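Progress report, Aim 2. The chain analyzed during this reporting quarter is listed below.
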Amino acid sequence: MLHCATVTVVPIMKRLSAVISEREYEKVKRLVRAGAAKSVAELVRQAVRKYVDDMGLSKLVVFRDVSLSQARKEITEYLQKHSGVVWPDEMAEELGIDYRLVLKVVQQLTSEGKVEVVEKKAEVITK
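Predicted structure tokens for the chain:
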């Protein structure tokens, strides 16, 4: 006698958590009621899939492993070439240096009076 079994492969799922405003949540519920998805959870899964697919690797930033002194040298050179308002996250992306290390260097440069941080917008302004 032959036996045949059907095997269903179920992907491992991970839970995500997000906090959104009540207004955004109401919009999500309206979309679900309109048939955009079977549930709020399904709509969120669809939105995440679409976002990840749309972004692809275009926004993937790979950070290099650099020392504090090397980061300082590169950031100083960057600031010399880009006068005016400079965003630390943009420096991190363009230089491929971890954002936290960029902030550490900016704090050093600020304490030395070489750059000015505009508190309201967290911008770095070269002097």
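The longest strand covers residues 115-118. The chain has two domains: 22-55, 68-126. These observations will guide the mutagenesis work planned for the next reporting period.
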